Protein: diphthine methyl ester synthase
Organism: Micromonas pusilla
Amino acid sequence: MLYVVGLGLGDEKDITVNGLEAVKRCDKVYLEAYTSILGVPKDRLEALYGREVTVADRQFVEQGIDGMLNEALEMDVAFLVVGDAFAATTHSDLVLRARGLGCKVKHIYNASIMNAVAGCGLQLYRFGQAVSIVFFTQTWRPDSFYDRIKENAALGLHTLLLLDIRVKEPSVEALCRGKNEYEPPRFMSCATCARQLMEVEELRGEGVYGPDSMCVAVARMGQDDEVIKSCTLKEMCNVDVGGPLHSMVLVGDTHPLEDDMLLMHRAKESDFLPDDEVPSQYLEDL
Amino acid sequence: MLYVVGLGLGDEKDITVNGLEAVKRCDKVYLEAYTSILGVPKDRLEALYGREVTVADRQFVEQGIDGMLNEALEMDVAFLVVGDAFAATTHSDLVLRARGLGCKVKHIYNASIMNAVAGCGLQLYRFGQAVSIVFFTQTWRPDSFYDRIKENAALGLHTLLLLDIRVKEPSVEALCRGKNEYEPPRFMSCATCARQLMEVEELRGEGVYGPDSMCVAVARMGQDDEVIKSCTLKEMCNVDVGGPLHSMVLVGDTHPLEDDMLLMHRAKESDFLPDDEVPSQYLEDL
């Protein structure tokens, strides 16, 4: 049996009781660790489970999955995913391959940023499609998210922006020399997201949003130091909401109750940093 | 302190470990029980928590909330919500009132149907706005959901349909006599939802969807007897996926991986019942 277990968003104890019982029954435990990060190091998971945890990085997920599925034909195997396994990142391919091999799959659900974002006070049924924002490089500045935001905005809907995570990216040097060396993991900040959004609006000029558009930064949702700050897009370029993970919401039409929640979370003068002090990304090895 | 704790979707053990530890610390425990239902009776919660659980029905939530918040100023109080507290139903008003009284609030996130629906294999970031479908009566057949589905469909997006739950509805007789008597709790089936959708398409005639539109029934998500069935809207009128809760998805444009998942969940001939044997609703007292 393959247990696909959502870990939730905070620490090792955000697993459900059912999830924990399943993991403790398992002979092998893998942790998917390249599409999100948990706020705690692996050894705290191992201490809670009483099991060794193997980190399944991008290379593993792309190449080692069949080995894991073959194990799951013989014994109980847990595949742990931060948040929920089918929400922000889909693991449908894993389920289909497992079924193809005749391997039973049991999914244990948990919170994902896709629903936890509602903790900021915006109503989930007023969100349109979610979009991903990737780090711009000198040569690659993809802006297709703009069209998705435009579609949502035309309907007055909120847009959840999922910010880039770069884990186990080969360094340029490593690529040149054929070595297995990686860049340090890095995570986009809301400030960088806001700057990229402003740049694309200037280029496209369709007025889908602007400097005064309201947005919400949600950082480390579900962790003890969770931060929620609402402010304008221009202000967001100078907001520091601390370490990863960050997500952001571009706010659509609001209900008075949503306005009250945004007001409760309104950023203060002290939340804004000078341009040269705003972290554009976070380097953190978790 | 007020702990607002999501219980997840299945049984009493779908609470997170952090959630369980918080509830065990609390002096009073309330269960919000009119916007959703858990698959298990209250005494199983009480056995796990070692605490008495007070059911907070509609009347309580509308009239007794301030009493609970005043308690939370003096002691630790848990307010339990099936799924997650801010997802399908928002409890923002509770948070705002608590803050107004100077009461600290801690939110413990969990899975909600709003993200767990992705377990059917449709990608969550391809969903537009979610809609609620209420039981039609002789005189009240609201069809504003049709416009929301139309907006989603125009963008090729999936629509999550949240089906009506009637708990603690006063009976007509009780209303006439001023008594506190209630109808038995009832829950809409996917078959009834499909019939109502067909009726509205016939009336409105804009071709937003039709008898051949693909849809997915998800029943008792996260419970051991979870059922996922994909079929056409016409077929859905005759599907029986068992007891509550049901939700439904109207499928938009699909990715090949989504097609594979829908195929895996394709309803079989044996899933369809004759017209007169399809339950239009479920009466269940949980």
Residues 2-111 of chain A form a domain with the Cobalt-precorrin-4 Transmethylase; domain 1 fold (CATH 3.40.1010.10).
